[in-house]
Amino acid sequence: MGRTKLAVIGGSGIYDIEGLEGAEWVRVDTPWGAPSDAILTGTLAGTDMAFLPRHGRGHVHSPSSVPYRANIDALKRLGVTDVISVSAVGSFREEMAPGDFVVVDQFIDRTFARDKSFFGPGCVAHVSVAHPTCPRLSTACVSAARGAGVTVHDGGTYLAMEGPQFSTLAESRTYREAWGCDVIGMTNMPEAKLAREAELCYASVAMVTDYDSWHPDHGEVDVTRIIATLQGNAAHARAMITAVAPALGGDRAPCPHGCDRALDFAIITQPDARDPAVTARLDAVAGRVLG
Ligand SMILES: CSC[C@H]1O[C@H](OP(=O)(O)O)[C@H](O)[C@@H]1O
Ligand SMILES: Nc1ncnc2[nH]cnc12
C-alpha cells in the first residue's frame, strides 16, 4: 500500500493554508517551466500535504497564464497522489447560491489559449476524461464540507471559459439554458485533463461567489463582490481541508476508479518511434509506464 500525499490548489482569494506541521515553501523546477509559485509542504493530522496557490501569491497569473503543466508536474514530482482544486465560480442555478460549494463532476472545456497536454509529437497519448474527477476523492470532499456545516451540491457541470473578461449575457444564458451547465469558472481546464494524464486523483470544489450575468435580480458580476464572498467562505474551505486530510488517511489503496492507472493503455507511439528528448520530459508524469 502506498502513502497518500494530498495537494490543494488554491484559487482566487486562497494563497496560503494554515495549520501545516513542519510547513516549508519549496521551489520545484519542471521541464515545463516554473509553477505558479513555490509549494507549501507539511503534514496535517498525519497526512502529507502540499499547497499551491494557482495564481501565485499576490495573484500574479491570469487564468490564461497559469502554468498548468508545470503546476501538475511539480505536484507529481513531489509525490502527490490526490489533488483538490478549490475555485471561485459563478452559478447558473438559483439553488446553487453564493456561499454554497459544488463538488463538480463534469466539465465543458471552452478554453483555447492554453497548453492542454503533456504529450505531443514524439510521444502521443490519449487518456479518457469521460469521468474527469475522482469519485473517491470527491466523496471525501462532500463529506468533509458537509461536516463543516457548508451547503454542498454533490455533482455539477463546470463551464471552463478562457476569460479574463466575464461572459456576455447571451453567453451566460446559452451556457445555462441550452447547455445545462451549473457553474462557470476560468481555471479547471486544462488542470483536470493534465491531472488525469499525470495519473493523479482530482476533485474540484467550486465555491459559488455570484450568479454570473443571467439572474434578473442580481447585478453584473464584479471582482470586488467575488472576493468579499470568498473571504466570507475562507473559513469553510479551511474547515473542509482540515477534515478531508485525516479522512483520506495516510495509507492509500489503489484508486478504485483507475485514476492512478490512466496511462496503462494510453500511449500510442511505438517504443522505438518515441523521441528520447520528449520522453525525458515525461519522467515525472509518465515514468511509471515509460520506465
Ligand atoms: C477573481 S474572479 C475570476 C477568477 O476567479 C476564479 O479563479 P479560480 O478558479 O482560480 O478560483 C475564476 O476562474 C477566475 O480566474
Ligand atoms: N461568473 C464567473 N465567471 C467566470 N469565472 C468566475 N469566477 C467567479 N465567478 C465567475
- Uncertain spans: none
The CATH topology comes to Rossmann fold
The ligands found in this model are: ligand LNRAV4D5, adenine
Global morphology: globular
**β-sheet strand percentage:** 15-25%
What is the total number of structural domains?
1
DSSP E strands, number: 13
Distance between the termini: 20 Å
Per CATH, the superfamily is: Nucleoside phosphorylase domain
Gyration radius, rounded = 18 Å
User: Biggest sheet, open or closed, and with what strands and sense?
Assistant: 11 strands, mixed
Question: Can you give me a brief rundown of this structure?
Answer:
The chain has helices at residues 68-77, 135-147, 169-178, 188-197, 223-248, 276-281, 283-290; strands at 2-3, 5-10, 21-26, 39-44, 47-53, 82-91, 101-104, 106-109, 152-154, 157-160, 183-185, 201-210, 251-252. By secondary structure, the protein is an alpha/beta fold. Pathway: Amino-acid biosynthesis; L-methionine biosynthesis via salvage pathway; S-methyl-5-thio-alpha-D-ribose 1-phosphate from S-methyl-5'-thioadenosine (phosphorylase route): step 1/1.
Tell me what the structure shows.
With 291 residues, this protein is of the alpha/beta class. The chain has one domain: Rossmann fold, CATH 3.40.50. 29% of the residues lie in helices and 23% in strands. Strands 2, 3, 4, 5, 6, 7, 8, 9, 10, 11 and 12 form an 11-stranded mixed beta sheet that branches. The two termini are 20 Å apart. The mean pLDDT is 96. The site of the ligand CSC[C@H]1O[C@H](OP(=O)(O)O)[C@H](O)[C@@H]1O has 13 residues, from β6 and α5. One of its GO terms (molecular function) is S-methyl-5-thioadenosine phosphorylase activity. It catalyses: S-methyl-5'-thioadenosine + phosphate = 5-(methylsulfanyl)-alpha-D-ribose 1-phosphate + adenine. Pathway: Amino-acid biosynthesis; L-methionine biosynthesis via salvage pathway; S-methyl-5-thio-alpha-D-ribose 1-phosphate from S-methyl-5'-thioadenosine (phosphorylase route): step 1/1. Keywords: Glycosyltransferase, Purine salvage, Transferase.
